Structures are given as structure tokens and as C-alpha cells.
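Please fill in the sequence for the structure shown.

STRUCTURE ENCODING:
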């Protein structure tokens, strides 16, 4: 997906990453991730897709293009619909977030269906508001979970 993002200094530029054999025919994943980015005033610089989650991440063409964009400084962060698109376990997610942080980036899951996360208590690894934060730092919402409300 081409970037329609304006070149604005000081705004965090992110890439969207999806894995789906059927693609995103209705644009639901993209729309939700764009809304997630816009709510944080991040600029969506482009999108990257792969069709098979069974392929190792390091061998996926879309993922490799996204990493190249990160290394060239075209994006500072990666938004994916859910953690399962890039990792099988929380430990793998944390390792991947650390790798991206070492390259100056951050990793965020936009979905509410990520294991261990709830509507108001979901965590964002290295999620900045302006610039990337230190690796491994987590941000939690102060809003009560639906069980507490």
C-alpha cells in the first residue's frame, strides 16, 4: 500500500504489517491499525503484507521490506494487527521488540484479542508519543478493566 502520509518533521512514522492468506479484502485490519496510529498522532508511512504465517519471519518478503524501511529511517515503528502475525509466544514478541528497539524502532499490536490483554489493560511495548522509548518499557492504561467497572 503506497504512502499518502505527509512528510511532517517531528511526527513518528510507522509501517503497518499484516499476514493473511486471504489478504484484507474489506480493509478492516488496515483501517483499525490506521485509527490506532492516528489516535497517537503517528503517521502511517506504508503497509507491508505477507500471505503465510507458517513461513519463518526472517523469510517473509513483506517483513524483510519493512525491516529495510526501518533501517533506512523511513519508519520508526511497526504496527501489526495482533502478536500472532509476528510471534508465537510472548517471549518471542519481547525478543522481536528488543531487536527492533536495537535498530531504533518499536513494535505495537493494535488488536484487543492478543492473549493476556484486555480492552483497557493492554500493554504496548516501546510505544512512543513522539519518539521511541527504551527497549522493554511497557505502558499500561490507567482505565479500569471491564471486570473492575
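FILLED IN BY: designer on duty
SEQUENCE:
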Amino acid at each position: 500500500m503506497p504512502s499518502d502520509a505527509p512528510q511532517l518533521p517531528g511526527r513518528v512514522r510507522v509501517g503497518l504489517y499484516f499476514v493473511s492468506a486471504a489478504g484484507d479484502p474489506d480493509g478492516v485490519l488496515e483501517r483499525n491499525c490506521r485509527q490506532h496510529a492516528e489516535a497517537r498522532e503517528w503517521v502511517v508511512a506504508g503497509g507491508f503484507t505477507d500471505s503465510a504465517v507458517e513461513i519463518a519471519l526472517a523469510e517473509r518478503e513483506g517483513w524483510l521490506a519493512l525491516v529495510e524501511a526501518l533501517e533506512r529511517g523511513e519508519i520508526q515503528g511497526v504496527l501489526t494487527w495482533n502478536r500472532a502475525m509476528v510471534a508465537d509466544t510472548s517471549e518471542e514478541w519481547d525478543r522481536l521488540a528488543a531487536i527492533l528497539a536495537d535498530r531504533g524502532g518499536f513494535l505495537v499490536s493494535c488488536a484487543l484479542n492478543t492473549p493476556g490483554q484486555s480492552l483497557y489493560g493492554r500493554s504496548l511495548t516501546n510505544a512512543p508519543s513522539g519518539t521511541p522509548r527504551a527497549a522493554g518499557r511497557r505502558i499500561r492504561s490507567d482505565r479500569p478493566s471491564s471486570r473492575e467497572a
